[in-house]
Amino acid sequence: MHRTPVLALTTGEPAGIGPELAAAIAGRSDGVRLVLLGDRQLLTGRAAAVGAGTDWPDYVPGGDAPVSLLHLPLAAPCTAGVLDPANARYVLDLLDRAIDGAQAGEFDAIVTAPLHKGVINEGISGKFFYGHTEYLAERTGTGRVVMMLTGGGLRVALATTHLPLKDVPAAITVDTLSRTLRILHADLRSKFGITTPRILVAGLNPHAGESGHLGREELDVIIPTLDALRAEGMALIGPLPADTLFNRKQLEQGDAVLAMYHDQGLPVLKYASFGEGINITLGLPVIRTSVDHGTALDLAGTGRADPGSLKAAIDLAAELARHRD
Fold first, then answer.
1. Looking at residues 40-65, what average pLDDT do you find?
2. Which pTM was predicted?
3. What letter would DSSP give residue 220?
4. Are residues 118 and 157 in the same domain?
């Protein structure tokens, strides 16, 4: 019998909707022990906006409370909807505590509410912050990770993440594409329990390059990489033209899609699942899931934000944690 998973929920940018979503969901996640990471006064205040209870005891490692709060203080008072770079370090403190706990075995998985990259870069000098995915990779000493979103019956992973479009072709090499596909294949087996994953691989160029007439990346990089990995036993389909990949008949042939860049694959998934999509980082030594949306500053403090994506992220984190047991 599986033990109850302990999930660390980082409440994200304090001026955004993360704190109130966490408060709203705290009493609605059965079968897990949920540890909220954030400032107690902030979270109790936002709970009032959604009519949620605040009966959260202080977190005690090894405790059995269904919901508890690990208090980490804000650096400066926070107003809903108003970003303050003074609290940038607070947001990263939440992540750092969750990562440390997960690596030590204290938490079975990490679930992250949205943060705001711009205010972190404004508030912390010396190093550019690209996002949760890249920060988790660096913080855990992981050489390469893969961003995958799930929802609407789809799993869409990315060969590149937060890059300007002009930089994408150079970032897709035999080495990086091979490592991405190996991570995706391995985690579909180990985390999702798919014995022989089938992966649909998109081309980079229109019509998957049209035999080199619309770009040579397919001929020079993608096809040789897929052929080499197929020889190792991977079930890879492609490269496929992205404009026809996302149809029902094609999708039935695969367990996941690998898109070459962020806006090639994610608009389709978010159209199919917006509000209930989940972001999962593959290749990490810890389990991490997240919402598929941003901080929604215009909704912060109103009580109108939909907690559906956060609920789905918690449910998936628990499922993956149980599977790993």
1. 91
2. 0.88
3. I
4. no
- Tally of residues, the chain: 325
**Tokens at residue 139, please?**
């913080």
Check residue 252 and report its DSSP letter: T
User: With contact defined as beta carbons under 8 Å apart, do 43 and 36 qualify?
Assistant: yes
Shared domain check, 114 and 7: yes
> For 223, what's the count of Cα atoms within 13 Å in the CB-facing half-sphere?
14
For residues 126-131, average pLDDT? 80
| Residues 28, 119 share a domain | yes
Distance CA(239)–CA(245), nearest Å, equals 10
Identify whether residues 191 and 117 lie together within a single domain: no
- Over the stretch 269-306, which tens digit does the pLDDT of each residue have? 988 887 788 999 999 999 999 998 899 999 999 989 88
- For 59, the domain range is 1-142+284-325
Report the share of the chain in percent with pLDDT over 70: 99
Do 240 and 303 lie in a common domain? no
267 and 219 together in one domain: yes
In DSSP notation, 110-166 reads: EEE----HHHHHHHS-SS----HHHHHHHHTT-S--EEEEEETTEEEEESS-S--GG
Confidence category of residue 7, pLDDT binned at 50, 70, 90: very high
- Residues 315 and 134: their CA atoms lie apart, in Å, by 23
Structure tokens at 6: 């302990």
If you average pLDDT over every residue of the chain, what do you get? 93
